[in-house]
Amino acid sequence: MTTLTLVQGDITRQHADAIVNAANSSLLGGGGVDGAIHRRGGPAVLAECRALRASRYGKGLPTGRAVATTAGELDARWVIHTVGPVYSPTEDRSDLLASCYRESLRVADELGARTVAFPAISTGVYRWPVEDAARIAVEAVRSTPTAVEEVRFVLFDERAYEAFARQTG
Ligand code: APR
Q: Any idea which UniProt keywords this protein has (predicted)?
């Protein structure tokens, strides 16, 4: 039975077995969560991302997929990097966003992670409306069989927190 919890705060300050990064396909860092995780996780995280680019993911990590690296200096054992879809008003990419959560849980199960912290994937630079993103996130987690015991959504601001609270209420 997986418990869903909500926290308002900075995901890089969370203690969890795995912290999920809202990455881009390059895996080489960026702004938002990505920037914060690399800043606080330190060079070991980027070093492993580079190794992934030099091996399994030569062309980058496709949207909707997930891959784990060390968490470096973060208070976690792993970072699970996943690439959210950019929001499109004309093309329904909901399944790609749901896939980020499903695939991250699959990777967490492979690792044996029992607690996983997620940001609100795609709701920043990728402009996904947070209410809809929260609905997709909660639905995806609730419909994915996993051994993960706690899924913690870590929301950076009040608006995102309220949106997720409405979906998990
Ligand atoms: N902790 C928790 N949540 C955060 C943090 C943080 N430290 N920083 C930002 N957020 C929130 C944002 O407010 C937003 O709600 O995470 C959500 C996702 O925003 P982004 O980090 O912009 O991620 P995303 O929209 O998926 O865009 C990914 O942005 O940073 C680049 O390299 C990244 O190209 C990729 C793109």
A: Hydrolase
Report pLDDT digits (tens) over 68-91. 999 999 999 999 999 999 999 999
CA 141 to CA 45: how far, in whole Å? 26
- The yes-or-no verdict on residue 166 having pLDDT over 90 is yes
Q: What is the pTM of this model?
A: 0.99
pLDDT tens column, 44-74: 999 999 999 999 999 999 999 999 999 999 9
Element (H, E) at 122: none
- Report yes or no: 126 and 85 within 8 Å, Cβ to Cβ: yes
Which ligand 1 atom sits nearest the alpha carbon of residue 29?
32
- Classify domain 3-168 at the CATH topology level: Leucine Aminopeptidase, subunit E; domain 1 (3.40.220)
Q: How do the domains of the chain map onto residue ranges?
A: 3-168
